[in-house]
C-alpha cells in the first residue's frame, strides 16, 4: 500500500507507512476473536494425520493419469477429497522434491499469504490479532468448514501470477478493434483456467448499415470466431475447459437468430451422427459444430415481459440510433426463446430490470452481463473471487443451526477475501483497475440440500425455503456489516462516493426483504432474528463508514471445492439421489445410503429399529416409496433432484426465489424438467422466474441434447409415383387386411411391478415370432382398471394384427407419465414413468430387433454394460453378454488390501455399515450408480480427463473422480 493509498483510505494519522515487507498495525485495526481454536494449540496438533497413495486412472483404458504416493491428510478426509486436492491443488512437478505432499503445506501456502498481506495493508490491530486470524482460517480450511475458489489454491503463494478470481465479465463495443480485443482477453482468461461472460448487444445487427454503406455482420457472426478460440484453448490442455457466457438483449434486431443458433447446431449433430460421424463428447468430429463452448442467455426487460403478458407488440431497436426498426409479437418471440430452450437448453434468461434494481453502482454503469454460470453480475471488465461455506458444519448435535458460529465464520472469510484483492493479479489492466476500485466479493455456501434433509425439512416446502432464506440473509447481512467495518479501517471502495446513495438503497432493500421472511420453525426464527439485527447494525455502520465492497455474495456451483469439503450437495441444489457412490481408502468402492437420511429419520421421530429398516429399504430400492413404517407425509423430505420422486420444476424456482433477495449477485442453478415437459412448461418457468424476482434462470429438459434419431433403414417406403399411362378413371382403394394368429401359438407371460403395483402381461406371436397380441391383467377382476386394461389390450392386439408396427406403439407410449410410476422389479427397465411406459419398453426389448430399439434409445442391462466396456451397445459375435451387477446385491463389503473398512465407516463419512454394499463393477460415480437404479441414462457429460460420468453442480458439471468441472468456479 502506497502513501497515496493510505491517505485515500482515510486511515488514522498515527498509522506509519511501511515497505511491502513490513507489517502495519493501526490503532483502529480489526480485533479478531477465536471461534474454533485454543490459545497455544496449533490447529494441526488437534487432528490425526495419515499417509495415502493417490493413483488416478482412466477407467476406460486403464491408463494412469496421475500418481503421487505418501501424501498426508487428516484421517477424516474422504478419499475423493484427498484425491482432488492432491491432483488439482498441490503445486510443483510430480516426482520432485519441489512437489507439495501434505495438506498442511497447501493450507500454509495460502493462509500465510493472506496473513502477510493483511499485516502489510494495515487490516489488523496487532500481531496477536493477525495470528488468531491465521489460526482460525487454518482450522476452518482443515475441518472443511469453507473453501476458497479454485484459483486461490492454484496460484496464491506460488511464483505464478496471484490470480484469485474465478469469474470475469468483459465488454465489447461496435468496433473491429474492440471485437478482436474481446477474443484476446477471453483467451487469456481461458488460459488461466477461468471463465468469462459478456453482452454483445452493442454490436450492430445484420439489419443495419455500416458507415461505408455495407451491411453489418451482426453479433452472431462474431460469436463463431470466439467459439472456435474457446474450443482451441480448451483442447490445449488447460486446467479446465473453457467456460463462457454470451448475452444478447431482447430488443436487439438479431435476437431471433441468436435464440436459434444452438438449436440449429443440435439438429446438425443429429444428422451428422446418423451419417456415421463421431459426434460424442470429445469425438473426432464434434469440433465442426459451432457455438458449443458458450452458454447463451437472453436479457429481457420488464417492458418485454409485460408485453408478453398482455400479448402486445415489442420493438427491436437499432444499436446506433436506438430507434425501433422492427416490431414483433412479444408472445411469439417469447415462444421462440422457450422453443429453443426446449430443444437444446439454450438460451437461458436474465431479467435486466431486476438485476439493475439491486445494483449498488448504477452511477458507474449498468450491469449488462454475467459470468458463465450466471451467479456473478456486476460492471463490465470486473472480476470476483468466491468462497463457499459448508452449511452442514454449523448444525449442532441438538439439530440447532449455530448462527453465532456462522456469523464469526462469515466475518473471517469476508476479511480474507477482501485482503486477497490487495495482492491479486488480473489478466488485463482494465479488469484489475475496476476490481480494485469496486472490490467485488462472492461469499456463498454449499450443502443446503443436505442441511434441510438432516433437519427433516423438504427442499420443496415452505419450511425449507424459510430456513434457506434466513441463512442467506444472515450470510449477506454479516458480510456487508464486516464490509462496513473494513471501510472504517482501510477505507470504502474507490467507487463508493459516487454511488453512496444507491448502495445504501440496496442495503435497505435487503433489510426489508429480511423483514418479509415468514418463519415456521425454531431454526429459521432464531437465524432470522440474528439476520435482522445484523442488517440493522451493518447499515448503521455503513451510513458512517461506507462499505468496502460493492458486492458481497453469490451462490456458485461449488463443484470442485464442494468435493474438497466432502459436501453431499452443491450450492443451492437438493440432493442428487438417496444412494451415493463412495471410494474407499486403498482402492475399491461401495454404495451407501446418504448419511443425512438416518439423521432426518431420527429428527422426524422414528425409532432406531424403524430407521434401520427404512435405511435398508432405501439401500435396496434407491427410494422411499413403500418403505416399511415410513409415513407418506414424510416422503417429500427425501425428494431429490433425480429418481423416483424428483423435485418438480417450480420447486427449484421457488427455492431460488426464497434466497435471491439476499444475494448481491445471482444463483448458479439449472431447473431440470422431465423429457415429457412441453414448450409451454418452459414458458411458464421463465415467466414465473420474472414474477418471483429472480435475476437469471436456466432450464434443462431431460434428453433434449440427445434426441432419438431414426435409422435410415427403418424409414417407411414411399409409394412409387403413378405413371403417365395410368387410367385416371380407375380408383384403387387400399384397405388393411387383418392377419389372425393361428389357433395354437407361442406366448410369453411376464409378471412385473411398477411403483409397487403388480401386473401380468401375456404376449402371443405368429410362427415367425412377430408380436400379434397382448393381454394385460391389472387389478381385481371386475374393477374399472381391469376393464379398461382389457379393452386397451384388445385394441392393441387387433391393431397389431392389422399391421400397425410395434415401433409405432413404442414411440407413442414410452415416456408417458402417470401413476403408478417408479422403480420396477425388471433388471432391464429399472424405472418406469407409468405402467404403459414399462409395458412397451418390455415389449420392445422382447420383440424388436436391436437396430430398431437402438433408434428408440431402448437397451437391455447387458447392452448398457457392454457400452461402458467397449463404447458400443451392439451385440458381440460370440454373444457373451456380461450381466450388470444390480443395485440389490447384499454381499458384505470386501475391503481392499491395506484398507481398514471399519475405520472408514467409523470416520463419520459413511452410514450404518449394514447398508454399505459393493458398488456395481462398472459404476464410477454417483451419476452412474443412479443410472443403474433408474435403468435409464442420465444427461451428464463424461469427464474429458478421466472418463467418469460427471454429476450436476449448479448450472455446471463436476467429476467425482478427478474434480474437473465444466464451469468457472
UniProtKB/TrEMBL annotation:
<keyword id="KW-0547">Nucleotide-binding</keyword>
<feature type="compositionally biased region" description="Basic and acidic residues">
    <location>
        <begin position="1"/>
        <end position="11"/>
    </location>
</feature>
<dbReference type="GO" id="GO:0004748">
    <property type="term" value="F:ribonucleoside-diphosphate reductase activity, thioredoxin disulfide as acceptor"/>
</dbReference>
<dbReference type="InterPro" id="IPR050862">
    <property type="entry name" value="RdRp_reductase_class-2"/>
</dbReference>
<comment type="function">
    <text>Catalyzes the reduction of ribonucleotides to deoxyribonucleotides. May function to provide a pool of deoxyribonucleotide precursors for DNA repair during oxygen limitation and/or for immediate growth after restoration of oxygen.</text>
</comment>
<keyword id="KW-1015">Disulfide bond</keyword>
<protein>
    <recommendedName>
        <fullName>Vitamin B12-dependent ribonucleotide reductase</fullName>
        <ecNumber>1.17.4.1</ecNumber>
    </recommendedName>
</protein>
<dbReference type="InterPro" id="IPR013678">
    <property type="entry name" value="RNR_2_N"/>
</dbReference>
<dbReference type="Pfam" id="PF02867">
    <property type="entry name" value="Ribonuc_red_lgC"/>
</dbReference>
<dbReference type="Pfam" id="PF08471">
    <property type="entry name" value="Ribonuc_red_2_N"/>
</dbReference>
<feature type="domain" description="TSCPD">
    <location>
        <begin position="743"/>
        <end position="846"/>
    </location>
</feature>
<dbReference type="GO" id="GO:0000166">
    <property type="term" value="F:nucleotide binding"/>
</dbReference>
<keyword id="KW-0560">Oxidoreductase</keyword>
<keyword id="KW-0170">Cobalt</keyword>
<dbReference type="GO" id="GO:0031419">
    <property type="term" value="F:cobalamin binding"/>
</dbReference>
<comment type="similarity">
    <text>Belongs to the ribonucleoside diphosphate reductase class-2 family.</text>
</comment>
<feature type="domain" description="Ribonucleotide reductase class II vitamin B12-dependent N-terminal">
    <location>
        <begin position="54"/>
        <end position="144"/>
    </location>
</feature>
<dbReference type="Pfam" id="PF12637">
    <property type="entry name" value="TSCPD"/>
</dbReference>
<dbReference type="GO" id="GO:0050897">
    <property type="term" value="F:cobalt ion binding"/>
</dbReference>
<feature type="region of interest" description="Disordered">
    <location>
        <begin position="1"/>
        <end position="22"/>
    </location>
</feature>
<feature type="domain" description="Ribonucleotide reductase large subunit C-terminal">
    <location>
        <begin position="165"/>
        <end position="700"/>
    </location>
</feature>
<dbReference type="InterPro" id="IPR024434">
    <property type="entry name" value="TSCPD_dom"/>
</dbReference>
<dbReference type="InterPro" id="IPR000788">
    <property type="entry name" value="RNR_lg_C"/>
</dbReference>
<keyword id="KW-0237">DNA synthesis</keyword>
<keyword id="KW-0846">Cobalamin</keyword>
<dbReference type="GO" id="GO:0071897">
    <property type="term" value="P:DNA biosynthetic process"/>
</dbReference>
<dbReference type="InterPro" id="IPR013344">
    <property type="entry name" value="RNR_NrdJ/NrdZ"/>
</dbReference>
Amino acid at each position: 500500500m502506497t502513501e497515496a493509498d493510505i491517505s485515500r483510505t482515510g486511515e488514522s494519522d498515527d498509522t506509519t507507512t511501511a515497505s511491502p515487507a513490513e507489517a502495519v498495525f493501526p490503532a483502529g485495526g480489526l480485533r479478531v476473536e477465536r471461534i474454533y481454536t485454543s490459545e497455544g494449540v496449533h490447529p494441526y496438533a488437534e487432528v490425526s494425520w495419515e499417509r495415502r497413495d493417490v493413483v488416478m486412472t482412466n477407467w476406460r483404458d486403464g491408463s494412469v493419469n496421475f500418481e503421487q504416493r505418501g501424501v498426508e491428510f487428516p484421517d477424516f478426509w474422504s478419499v475423493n477429497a484427498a484425491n482432488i486436492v492432491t491432483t488439482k491443488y498441490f503445486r510443483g512437478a510430480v516426482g520432485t522434491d519441489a512437489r507439495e505432499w501434505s495438506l498442511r503445506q497447501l493450507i500454509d501456502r495460502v493462509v500465510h499469504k493472506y496473513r502477510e498481506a493483511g499485516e502489510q495493508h494495515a487490516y489488523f490491530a496487532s500481531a496477536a490479532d493477525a495470528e488468531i486470524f491465521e489460526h482460525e482460517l487454518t482450522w476452518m480450511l482443515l475441518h472443511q468448514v469453507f473453501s476458497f475458489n479454485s484459483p486461490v489454491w492454484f496460484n496464491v503463494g506460488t511464483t505464478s501470477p496471484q490470480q484469485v478470481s474465478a469469474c470475469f465479465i468483459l465488454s465489447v463495443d461496435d468496433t473491429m478493434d474492440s471485437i478482436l480485443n474481446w477474443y484476446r482477453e477471453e483467451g487469456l482468461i481461458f488460459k488461466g483456467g477461468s471463465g468469462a461472460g459478456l453482452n454483445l448487444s452493442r454490436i450492430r445487427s445484420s439489419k443495419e448499415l455500416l458507415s461505408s454503406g455495407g451491411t453489418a455482420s451482426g453479433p452472431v457472426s462474431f460469436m463463431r470466431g470466439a467459439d472456435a478460440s474457446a474450443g482451441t484453448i480448451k483442447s490445449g490442455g488447460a486446467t479446465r475447459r473453457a467456460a463462457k457466457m454470451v448475452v444478447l438483449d431482447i430488443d436487439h434486431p438479431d435476437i431471433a437468430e441468436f435464440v436459434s443458433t444452438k438449436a440449429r447446431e443440435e439438429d446438425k449433430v443429429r444428422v451428422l451422427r446418423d451419417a456415421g460421424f463421431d459426434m460424442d463428447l470429445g469425438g473426432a468430429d464434434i469440433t465442426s459444430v459451432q457455438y458449443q463452448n458458450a452458454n447463451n442467455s437472453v436479457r429481457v426487460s420488464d417492458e418485454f415481459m409485460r408485453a408478453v403478458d398482455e400479448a402486445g407488440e415489442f420493438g427491436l431497436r437499432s444499436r446506433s440510433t436506438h430507434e425501433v426498426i422492427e416490431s414483433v409479437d412479444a408472445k411469439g418471440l417469447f415462444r421462440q426463446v422457450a422453443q429453443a430452450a426446449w430443444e437444446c437448453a439454450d438460451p437461458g434468461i436474465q431479467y435486466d430490470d431486476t438485476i439493475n434494481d439491486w445494483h449498488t453502482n448504477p452511477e458507474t454503469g449498468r450491469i449488462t452481463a454475467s459470468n458463465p454460470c450466471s451467479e456473478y453480475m456486476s460492471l463490465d471488465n470486473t472480476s470476483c473471487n468466491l468462497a463457499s461455506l459448508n452449511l452442514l458444519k454449523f448444525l449442532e448435535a441438538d439439530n440447532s443451526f449455530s448462527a453465532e458460529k456462522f456469523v464469526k465464520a462469515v466475518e473471517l472469510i469476508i476479511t480474507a477475501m477482501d485482503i486477497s484483492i490487495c495482492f491479486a493479479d488480473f489478466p488485463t489492466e482494465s479488469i484489475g483497475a475496476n476490481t480494485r476500485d469496486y472490490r467485488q466479493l462472492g461469499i456463498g455456501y454449499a450443502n443446503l440440500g443436505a442441511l434441510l434433509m438432516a433437519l427433516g425439512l423438504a427442499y420443496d416446502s415452505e419450511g425449507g425455503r424459510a430456513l434457506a432464506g434466513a441463512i442467506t440473509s444472515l450470510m449477506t447481512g454479516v458480510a456487508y456489516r464486516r464490509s462496513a467495518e473494513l471501510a472504517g479501517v482501510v477505507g470504502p471502495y474507490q467507487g463508493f462516493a459516487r454511488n453512496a446513495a444507491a448502495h445504501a438503497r440496496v442495503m435497505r432493500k435487503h433489510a426489508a426483504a429480511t423483514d418479509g421472511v415468514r418463519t415456521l420453525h425454531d431454526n429459521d426464527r432464531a437465524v432470522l432474528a440474528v439476520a435482522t439485527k445484523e442488517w440493522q447494525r451493518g447499515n448503521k455502520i455503513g451510513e458512517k463508514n461506507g462499505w468496502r465492497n460493492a458486492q458481497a455474495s453469490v451462490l456458485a456451483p461449488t463443484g470442485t471445492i464442494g468435493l474438497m469439503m466432502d459436501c453431499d450437495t452443491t450450492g443451492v441444489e437438493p440432493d442428487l439421489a438417496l444412494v451415493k457412490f463412495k471410494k474407499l481408502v486403498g482402492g475399491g468402492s461401495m454404495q451407501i445410503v446418504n448419511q443425512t437420511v438416518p439423521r432426518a429419520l431420527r429428527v422426524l421421530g422414528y425409532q432406531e429399529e424403524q430407521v434401520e429398516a427404512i435405511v435398508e429399504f432405501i439401500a435396496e430400492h434407491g427410494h422411499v416409496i413403500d418403505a416399511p413404517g415410513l409415513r407418506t407425509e414424510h416422503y417429500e423430505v427425501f425428494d431429490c433432484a433425480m429418481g423416483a420422486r424428483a423435485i418438480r420444476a417450480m420447486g427449484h424456482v421457488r427455492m431460488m426465489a426464497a434466497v435471491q433477495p439476499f444475494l448481491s449477485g445471482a444463483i448458479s442453478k439449472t431447473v431440470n424438467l422431465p423429457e415429457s415437459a412441453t414448450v409451454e412448461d418452459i414458458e411458464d418457468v421463465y415467466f414465473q422466474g420474472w414474477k418471483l424476482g429472480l435475476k437469471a434462470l436456466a432450464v434443462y429438459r431431460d434428453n433434449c441434447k440427445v434426441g432419438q434419431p431414426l435409422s435410415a433403414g427403418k424409414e417407411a417406403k414411399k409409394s412409387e409415383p403413378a405413371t403417365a399411362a395410368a387410367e385416371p378413371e380407375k380408383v384403387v382403394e387400399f384397405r388393411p387386411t387383418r392377419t389372425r394368429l393361428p389357433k395354437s401359438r407361442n406366448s410369453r407371460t411376464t409378471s412385473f411391478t411398477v411403483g409397487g403395483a403388480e401386473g401380468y402381461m401375456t404376449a402371443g406371436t405368429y410362427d415367425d415370432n412377430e408380436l400379434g397380441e397382448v393381454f394385460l391383467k391389472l387389478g381385481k377382476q371386475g374393477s374399472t382398471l381391469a376393464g379398461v386394461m382389457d379393452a386397451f389390450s384388445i385394441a392393441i392386439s387387433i391393431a397389431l394384427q392389422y399391421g400397425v408396427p410395434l415401433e409405432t406403439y413404442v414411440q407413442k407410449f414410452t415416456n408417458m407419465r402417470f401413476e403408478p410410476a417408479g422403480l420396477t422389479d425388471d433388471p432391464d427397465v429399472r424405472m418406469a414413468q407409468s405402467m404403459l411406459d414399462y409395458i412397451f419398453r418390455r415389449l420392445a426389448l422382447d420383440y424388436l430387433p436391436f437396430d430398431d430399439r437402438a433408434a428408440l434409445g431402448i437397451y437391455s442391462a447387458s447392452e448398457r454394460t457392454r457400452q461402458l466396456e467397449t463404447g458400443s451397445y451392439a451385440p458381440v459375435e460370440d454373444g457373451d453378454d456380461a450381466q450388470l451387477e444390480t443395485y440389490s446385491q447384499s454381499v458384505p463389503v470386501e475391503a481392499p488390501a491395506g484398507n481398514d473398512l471399519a475405520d472408514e465407516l467409523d470416520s463419520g463419512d459413511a452410514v450404518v455399515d449394514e447398508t454399505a454394499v459393493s458398488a456395481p463393477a462398472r459404476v464410477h460415480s454417483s451419476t452412474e450408480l443412479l443410472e443403474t437404479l433408474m435403468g435409464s441414462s442420465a444427461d451428464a457429460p463424461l469427464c474429458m480427463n478421466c472418463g467418469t460420468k460427471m454429476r450436476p453442480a449448479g448450472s455446471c458439471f463436476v467429476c467425482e473422480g478427478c474434480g474437473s468441472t465444466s464451469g468457472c468456479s
